[in-house]
Amino acid sequence: MTKIHSDIEKCHDHYLVLQEQLCWLCVIICGQRCKHVFLRLVEQEKDPGFWKEWAQRTLKNALTLQDLNKNVAKNIILFLGDGMGVPTVTAARILKGQLSGQNGEETQLEMDKFPYVALSKTYNTNAQVPDSAGTATAYLCGVKANEGTVGVSAAAVKSQCNTTRGNEVTSILKWAKDAGKSVGIVTTTRVNHATPSAAYAHCVDRDWYSDGDMPAEALQSGCKDIARQLFENIPDIDVIMGGGRRNMYPRNTPDVEYPGDKKHNGTRKDGRNLVGEWTDRMKDKRGYYVWNRKDLFSLNPSNVDYLLGLFEPADLPYELERNKETDPSLTEMVDVAIKILRKNERGFYLLVEGGRIDHGHHDGKAKHALHEAVEMDRAITRAGLLTSIYDTLTVVTADHSHVFSFGGYTHRGNSIFGLAPIMSDIDQKPFTSILYGNGPGFKFVNGARENVSTVDYEHNNYQAQAAVPLSMETHGGEDVAIFSKGPLAHLLHGVQEQHYIPHVMAYAACIGQNKNHCHTNSGSPSLSHISPTLAVLLSVKWLLC
How does it sit in the membrane (predicted)? Predict the structure, then answer.
């Protein structure tokens, strides 16, 4: 192997350095030399040997996957990119590379490094193109459900309270808690939004955030709002972080961060202060409530057993708009969560949602959506450094896709937010590579399509052009990817129904209904097949992280 090929193997997107486990080591070894190597890639790509050697290295790595990891998964982590369809993954990969000064196409996301990839069929029981509630019930509770409902089977009817009782289904988070594991929820949306709520709630309407959002009939029939269920259904969730403060406080209670803005006031009609109740219950259990980044980082995870972090009245800001003094990033929340949860010798289950990928697409603001996806990938990297593939099953997937695309025969290294290199042969106007099938970006000026060269199409809030005018862009119905690594990750293969995912994760962790294959007394995985050298390296990595 030539010197340049050796350098590329070491440095190319921090690849092939003991996989993701020791990717930090490449930065130490290579330093600024990586940048110089990338400048030489253009010439190297003209050499057929470059591609052949790269393929052979990839093949060599693939052959090692024949030795399947059949350990018991002590820890299980699900990263859910809300609305992160395959086109979003590809575009986020390019953006990640371009943010580092590369062309982008050759970059690897952290999830790209996972050894197993499958496809998930996302339809709801009553919808070809799904919503985030019915899909969350599938990948968390293992049961397909109707759109708009969380934690209930398809026998429950949306918004009909009297169809709730008897149709409740429990989630993998509860299965893990019942097995003695610590459990956590981290999201960039409200903690009672569609995705996280399916982990603990049983509700026929995803929009019943607080009792102030419920019809009188539902309240009289005994249905509970989702915020209340967060604290009552599984009262000892170890870590909860995200937004949603206003749904926890009595109506008209000023928000602690925005006391002068009435839209952020409390919404509860029952007069309950759910945060105060949680704080009182946890004060003798090393439980802490925080509402800003400073308070979060004032905590020592070693001294925290329970954490409730509500950083905004509703959803957290987009990463591009985040106040880095007051709001933590998704990566920072994941870091704290794992450091708290991993103290349990029986392991943990963690649900992490990059929830605002979806919001960016709905708004037609691709730049926000893709930066949210890149931030979630950073969180995946951090989780990998804090855990081991030998006892931690990590799954990355999406609930659904969006009608988002990019094309136009753009040249290599073209800004992912830039123009296509050709004009339309119909209206003789330029167009951006990124387009939506529908959404708020549909704009006519003087009876014709807007000329995008007259606007700042790389602005953070630019709404990409859409074929059909809608106030909000819609979900897409195609399959989404499932990336997996760790114990029994190979069971996530082929094209699968979405509800299959939690059954695999539970099987790998020996929790839930199917435990006949579990044979260890302690529930801990055997690491007897790990080489002494790798065991030492993993131990060093754990101490450093």
Answer: Lipid-anchor; GPI-anchor
Return the SS3 of 123.
coil
The distance of Cα 291 from the centroid of its chain, to the nearest Å, equals 21
Q: Does pTM surpass 0.85?
A: yes
Q: Is 359 annotated as a binding residue?
A: no
Query: Rounded to an integer, what distance in angstroms lies between the CA atom of residue 207 and that of residue 214?
Result: 8
pLDDT at position 37 is 54
Is 493 annotated for ligand binding? Answer: no
Query: What Å distances lie between residue 349 and 58, 78, 140, 176, 337, CA to CA?
Result: 31, 8, 11, 6, 11
Q: Which fold has domain 75-403+476-509?
A: Alkaline Phosphatase, subunit A (3.40.720)
Contact 85, 480 (CB under 8 A): yes
DSSP string, 176-218: HHHTT-EEEEEEEEETTSHHHHTTT--BS-TT--SGGGS-HHH
> What would the two tokens of residue 36 be?
């110089």
Per domain, the residue ranges of the chain are 1-64, 75-403+476-509, 407-469
Q: What is the pLDDT of residues 110-157, one digit of tens each?
A: 999 999 999 999 999 999 999 999 999 999 999 999 999 999 999 999
Backbone angles phi and psi of 332, in degrees to 5: -65, -40
Active site residues: 132
Task: Tell the residue number behind the tokens 């109506």, with chain if given.
Answer: 251
CB contact at 8 A, 330 and 188: yes
Whether 497 contacts 144, CB under 8 Å: yes
Q: Report how far residue 131's alpha carbon sits from residue 126's, in angstroms, rounded to the nearest whole number.
A: 10
Q: How far is CA 412 from CA 48, 96, 263, 457, in A?
A: 18, 15, 46, 19
The distance of Cα 20 from the centroid of its chain, to the nearest Å, equals: 18
Query: 12 labelled as ligand-binding?
Result: no
Order the strands of the 239-243 sheet from edge to edge: 287-290, 306-310, 239-243, 182-190, 348-354, 75-81, 392-398, 480-485, 116-121, 495-497
How many Cα atoms within 13 Å fall on the side-chain side of residue 445?
10
